Amino acid sequence: MTNAVDPKTFFPDLKENLTMVTWAHATNTKALLSEALTNPKVMMVEADVVLGTVGTNKTVVPIMAHPPASESDLSLQEFVDTVNKENKEKPKKGVKLDFKTYEAFNASKAIIEKGLNNGTYPVFINADIFAGPVDAEAAKVTPNTFLNDVKKYDNVTLSLGWTTKVKDAKNASLNGSYTAEKVKEMIDTVTLQKLSQPITYAVRAKFVAATGLDQIKLLVNNTLETTKKNSTLTIWSPDDEVDEVDAKKLSALITDSGVGVKNVYLDVPEKLMSKLDLNGASGITVTTMTLLGSLFVNFFLTVMPRRG
Description:
single chain, 10 strands, 19% strand
């Protein structure tokens, strides 16, 4: 039986630096998927999965769309078939699927098992399983039910996150962090489920930058002890730049020896990327990050906004 494909092995040019992984966001249409798969600058193709319909067919199936949309020209089955065809001879792209509800994931299990659990390229299965900072809405994926189902897929990386809320009813910015209680809730759930897959924790840049470093180390290190697999962070921020992120604090978190660039995916806009000071972190510098951002910004400007 094969294991989940490690991006550091699949993309050898990373040289242990996961912050260099590049992402195509919300590839929820045939056109965007084609663009992402043919763009040599894209490493990981991220897309959202909900239940809905494709074209004039009124049968409800897993489709590629971001809520509140419930229609698309691309079903999950078509998405998977297209990626597998492109990766058939020489796999070049990884995939991250963001399931918005448990119902969408439940209806997708057969597609995942037959089409994605083959261990030939990186596959991330993402879901928000807990409510996050500042009175965020309840997660629409039940933690234990979801994890009990997904842990059978040996060849995927589990991407687990929290829902988030950054504006109040008056559209004023909200400040918060991943509290000790929220971190403990995640650790306890992962421990209870006895997961064996690699895990990456999807955390919003605005909130993780305000979180105590001890909490982040606890999250990463306890997972390693429990699963015997390396765990990572996926630090994300919206493409529409609605967040106010403390770049100095975020830089310090990433470069800290207890976390480090070898354990952090950076899925943030070029504007934020250019502000990060990662000097001394496996040799990557602000200049390097800015250059990388400028190379990819033209592509990212063509994709749809990511998480709401």
